[in-house]
Amino acid sequence: MYAIPENREAPVQEMFSSIARAYDLNNTLLSFGMHHLWKEAAVRHARVPAGGRAADLCAGTCDIAALLARRMGAAGHVDALDLNPAMLAVGESKLRRAGLAGRVSVTRGNMEDLPFPSDRYDAATVGFGIRNVVDRAKALSEMRRILKTGGRAVCLEFSRPVNPLWRRAYAFYNFRLLPWVGTRVARDRTRVYEYLPASIAAFPDQETLKGVMESVGFKQVTYHNLCGGVVALHVGVK
User: Closest by alpha carbon to 232, among 139, 144, 158, 151?
Assistant: First the structure.
């Protein structure tokens, strides 16, 4: 199994830079298109108001940021943040093509030290990025800091399938098929599609992540299993 580096920020960013142009295509192929439905569910649970303000963290190629912007309408605004400039460049291009560039501001930055003021946002989302963060408790605490009182944090991430048989099938897919398909589509040799299943396997399960969110001060923390727990959607309120 791929060994995740203890100091993983630089190598992980290098890997994601190498696949940025193929990232959206691979997401669609490897999730059988389901990632679009999962992201739409995350935005529904964010409950952003018309004309509101949201932050999308670890925004990648800005899929969730675009969905948030559409949901809030022309008077709303999204601040999208990611550490990887190559991924953000792809996201900015998508936003321009969709006519959303004026409604989404793109910022390069680290979720563990957000460059945003406190008590500003109606909702904050992170989709498939929290497992790549080194200090997750600190990142979630930052997420809570920037929310208004009553604001909602939504964390969408791969998790643990509930059924043991489904869990074994998912492990086979993750460690055998995903690296094979992902590497060939992206034509990548940085081992990113070995890192991804390893990072999923090392990530806390649903109850553990719920506990981390509660430990940094979120209230009414709940989670919803999608696709039998392959993906979990955690929601917390400030």
Answer: 158
